[in-house]
């Protein structure tokens, strides 16, 4: 090879590496625009842009604007919102478990779904955290109703006590005014998709590490596993009340947080995900 050819090859190699570097920089961090509203954002894994047949889709909703229910902030959208609690470390830890424990081709990085967007119809499974702090508009409630009736699945988690229950129900009743909320019975298929979940207990938030308490509210000492069913008996909304599965996923790698809580949270999350993909 002559020196001229060597120079040409070196130029082509440098140009290719430069283009790849520019593409990576152009992409940036996936969901970077939402990190200011997330509680615990982490760096993207190397395969962040590799798609899969399933992705953890988290609902970004407007904040409750009254009193104690404000959570992170004072209504509307802004920094550190309730929708982003535990995110995005929680879902990325859970996806590692899904990949390890199932054959589901799960994407490593979450998808953020705006409550105002028809993009939700592209994702069969939605997760909404701290719904004791949400306040959906009528148009958002209508969109979610259509999403659920088309076969979508909504899992809600990490809200506690009667006050937060009432805030949650105010929006849920606008979504599904004709559907009752019922307690899941032990024989329900959703509790036996992969793991048998007859033995369920209260999964606390990270506050357990210093408080020793499994509950966050004095009127929230009993864990409830509830659901809304459609007319065919399919679970449309899975409701985890007086538990904090999100924290159990988020702190799965923290030796101070007890492993039995994380183990149950993973089993519940995986069962609900697989159920939504199969029903």
Head-to-tail CA distance between termini = 62 Å
- Count of β-strands: 7
Structural class comes to alpha/beta
How large a portion of the residues is in β-strands, by DSSP E? 5-15%
The percent of residues in helical segments reads 25-40%
Q: Mean pLDDT, rounded to whole units?
A: 89
SSE order in H/E notation?
A: HEHEEHEHEHEEHH
Describe the biggest sheet? 7 strands, mixed
- Summed up, the helix count is 7
Write down the Rg. Answer: 21 Å
Dominant shape? globular
Description:
- The protein has 279 residues and is of the alpha/beta class.
- Helix content is 34%, strand content 12%.
In brief, what are we looking at here?
With 279 residues, this protein is α/β, with parallel strands linked by helices.
